[in-house]
Design a protein that fits this description.
Blueprint: E1 3-7, E2 10-13, E3 18-25, E4 33-39, E5 46-52, E6 57-59, E7 67-72, E8 77-82, E9 91-98, E10 110-111, E11 115-120
Parallel strand pairs: 2-11
Antiparallel strand pairs: 1-3, 3-8, 4-5, 4-9, 5-6, 7-8, 9-10, 9-11
Amino acid sequence: EVQLVESGGGSVQTGGSLRLTCKATGYVYRPYCMGWYRQSPGTKREVVATIDGHVRSVYGDSVKGRFTVSQDTQKDELYLQMDSLTPEDTAMYYCAADPWSCPSSAEYKYSGQGTQVTVSS
């Protein structure tokens, strides 16, 4: 069973940066798609960034140019560098993986427990 553990969340002021890390374990074959989504109470999941088996990165419109997704396959880790943060980025951020595709709905087969990111003005 794939397990995903996030770290690196916290509180920052507007304009600040954070780097999230996701450690993946328990898989025999690396999932085709790994990525990040976020969700705030009462809102739908929002795809933040994904990276697929062809090493193609896709970003949500609201984070393009500010966030960067990357991976270290040797360490089985996925990263999300978040720069120029604004209060609208405040949410729980989840690391996720899917063996077959990068779902636009952010309904991945596997998700971590999440890490909170809070941006104050």
